[in-house]
């Protein structure tokens, strides 16, 4: 069982930065690959970034590569998403998720989800 709570969203101007946090409960945190997804109104949920269990290898969507950075602190049971050079098209609800099996890039591969945190980037 994994419980996830996102925080850190808000309103920011284009070019600004935000850091999202995902607090996880459950002893299985360190053995789970964790991911960030986002969903804008009327659009499909899309992959943003993932960080693997044990080794901390990272994966990014092309749309955020070079701007976003995912990290994890297993001692604090927390996953972070540092978002720099934000663009209006980054506006979405951002979800933290715990991976189960399958492709890291696909939402159905994740079995636990947080409630989401709103990120709004103005022009």
Q: What attributes characterize this protein structure?
A:
4-stranded antiparallel β-sheet, globular, mainly beta, 0% helix, 123 residues
Describe this structure in words.
- It is a single chain.
- With 123 residues, this protein is mostly beta strands.
- Strands 2, 4, 5, 6, 9, 10 and 11 form a seven-stranded mixed β-sheet that branches.
- The protein has no helices and eleven strands.
Give a topology summary.
Layout: E1 3-7, E2 10-13, E3 18-25, E4 34-39, E5 46-51, E6 58-60, E7 68-73, E8 78-83, E9 92-99, E10 110-113, E11 117-122
Parallel strand pairs: 2-11
Antiparallel strand pairs: 1-3, 3-8, 4-5, 4-9, 5-6, 7-8, 9-10, 9-11
Could you write a compact summary of the structure shown?
By secondary structure, the chain is mainly β. The chain has strands spanning 3-7, 10-13, 18-25, 34-39, 46-51, 58-60, 68-73, 78-83, 92-99, 110-113, 117-122. Helix content is 0%, strand content 50%.
Low-pLDDT residue intervals, each spanning 5 or more residues: none
> Sheet with the most strands?
7 strands, mixed
User: Could you spell the SSE succession in H and E letters?
Assistant: EEEEEEEEEEE
What oligomeric state do the depicted chains represent? single chain
């Amino acid at each position: 069982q994994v419980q996830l709570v996102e925080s850190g969203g808000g309103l920011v101007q284009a070019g600004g930065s935000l850091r999202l946090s995902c607090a996880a409960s459950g002893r299985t945190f360190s053995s789970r690959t964790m991911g960030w997804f986002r969903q804008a109104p009327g659009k499909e949920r899309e992959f943003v970034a993932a960080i693997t269990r044990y080794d901390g290898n990272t994966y990014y969507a092309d749309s955020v590569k070079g701007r976003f950075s995912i990290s994890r602190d297993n001692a604090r049971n927390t996953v972070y998403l540092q978002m720099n050079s934000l663009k209006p098209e980054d506006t979405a609800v951002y979800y933290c998720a715990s991976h189960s099996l399958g492709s890291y890039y696909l939402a159905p591969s994740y079995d636990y989800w947080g409630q989401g945190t709103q990120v709004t980037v103005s022009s």
